[in-house]
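step 4 of 6: structure.
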Amino acid sequence: MSTPSGPAADPTLDPALQSWVESANDPASDFPIQNLPLCGFVAERDGHAHAHLGVAIGDQVVDVSMLAEAGAIADDDEEVLDALSDPFWYGVLGVPGMAGRVRPVLQRFLRADTAAGQRARRVRSKALRPISETRFLEPVHVFNYTDFYASVHHATTVGSMFRPENPLLPNYKHIPIGYHGRASSLVVSGTPVRRPWGQQAPPDNEPEAGPSFAPCRMLDYELEVGAVIGVGNRMGEPIAVGEAHRHLLGLCLVNDWSARDIQKWEYQPLGPFLAKNFATTISPFIVTLEALAPFRCPAPARPKGDPCPLAYLVDEGDQAAGGFDITLEVLIRTEKMAAQGLDALRLSRGSFRHMYWTVAQLLTHHASGGCNLQPGDLLASGTVSGPEPESRGCLLELTWQGHGPDGKPRPRKPIDLPTGETRTFLADGDEVIMRGHCVRDGFRRIGFGECRGKVEPART
Ligand code: CA
């Protein structure tokens, strides 16, 4: 008889596990005890602000740093206890397998049916704080940020705006396209985002007018999934695609804010620059690979006629389970909607499973020329758009109507809002909210929390 393996054999994923934090047992919760995503937050102590490690559970955050310091999290594994005393999860990031070792220790503390859990209940008021009242920090300190372009549906729709006959450039199906982004302007969910100023092309009908410098008029979001590097590689040493997941700590949500008018004027020949680097928002929670194990899925089959990727990007295991089945949504709430007490309106819904390139392929390609990835690096997927129009992950695509019979682009179709307002691109005061979750029979639903950002007016 063969021994069971895979997620079904992992006791930390047992759907029957319950927590003494009651809200975590709600089947609709993003953060059951089977998830335990990593975060960082501000803890006030003796009148000073400290960066603490946290783990989300139900509608609460567990103050991991405080508990570790107080000796409340007991374990024989001294290395695990040490790992919990460094800020920004430094003690977990660079150590192979450490996230997997921390997980059962925290879970024992939060379980309803363990002696440790019974003791933990008694420190409840000190150990927990509501997510809604928590000031989050970046979950890890990100030194390097790279942005890919891994959705063939996004690349095709955007490419068709400029090249209707031939939307994909000849390299797309051979090489994961990416560029180096800017880490200094990464902000955590909830941080307001100021509309940028920038150079814009002269109007199409007045090319002699010259470019202008003005606040962005075509501000957009991009729904992306971020892969956080745990263990790096040495400079010059590539990462085999079959080994790539050993270098990955987990996934989070990313809003790669984009100034489309600035982008249009500046992106050739070297790619996006100021159109992207004014702000990028990440969700406060890193969902670990351990928690995501049940939701792995095959990489999408390449359509007949598509080239096979080069050998360094191919691995049987990656083809079989390199995808992640994550349902992703984008919502908007304008200032007027908020004033009228209206719920945010869903703009799109799709799945991360349709990406043309797997996360492992992105990581392997990144390191293939000798580039060293470092613990805490963020590799964003590129806009996640699926095959259906309702799964388009940015306004540039959602309001696009293709070209008319005269070969010219049709006017963009604005999105109608319940207040009677319309949007083609974002207005000041708009809040963009991204969410993600995973479901599969036989496992607990897990979620990513929210990645939020509100647009502030350009500086005057
Ligand atoms: Ca992007």
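step 5 of 6: annotate
 - The longest strand covers residues 446-456.
 - The chain has two domains: 7-137, 145-456.
step 6 of 6: archive
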